[in-house]
Amino acid sequence: MIDLAFSILAADFANLGEEIATAERAGGTVCHVDVMDGHFVPNITFGPPVVAAVRRCTNLPLDVHLMIEDPDRYIPDFAKAGADWVIVHQEVCRHLHRTLSQIREHGMQPAVVINPATPVETLIEVLPIVHHVLVMTVNPGFGGQSFIPRCVEKVRHLASLREEMNLNFRIEVDGGIAVDTVGEVVRAGADLLVAGSAIFAGPGNQAQTAKNAEEFLRVARSAGELTA
Fold this sequence. Notes:
By secondary structure, the protein is an alpha/beta fold. Helices cover 34% and strands 19% of the residues.
């Protein structure tokens, strides 16, 4: 199954509820929320209050990507805000298994993410307990960056490990994912696709946002059918 996880980082914040509804009607099946703290990444975005507001706008799964230091401290807050899936960075978690277990204990699905320079091998011990693995295809911190082609090999590697280990975790990609790159990552094994600037067309352009989402999904699903 191919899922479009539309990233609200690229949405019109003044009309966020309408933007989410437009992306959902156009086929988006997951709402992706990028949480940045200005320390782990050079940007500041949302916290639990925004997640709680988004929760009131949609019944879709909220995929909350914590680009923050010390994520353990905030897991209860995001659970209370209504997050469904919480993604933490391998690079900041001293005790990754413990952090992922804490996420599950708070009633959410645990997921882990690696940056472009982090090897897939660092995740092998936690693959049996995660809902999904996110491969960053840009360096995290800002939307609208260019896709890093070498990251596709990480997706292939994870897909191979999933089969070899007889696991069913999903593979997510985020960063520069658009109609010209989505086919490649789907063919490599990705099935959870984060897209922001490729979907949201700007204030007052809901019709174009809908067209963008529909075309994105058409290309992604065609690639998935060719791979099957």
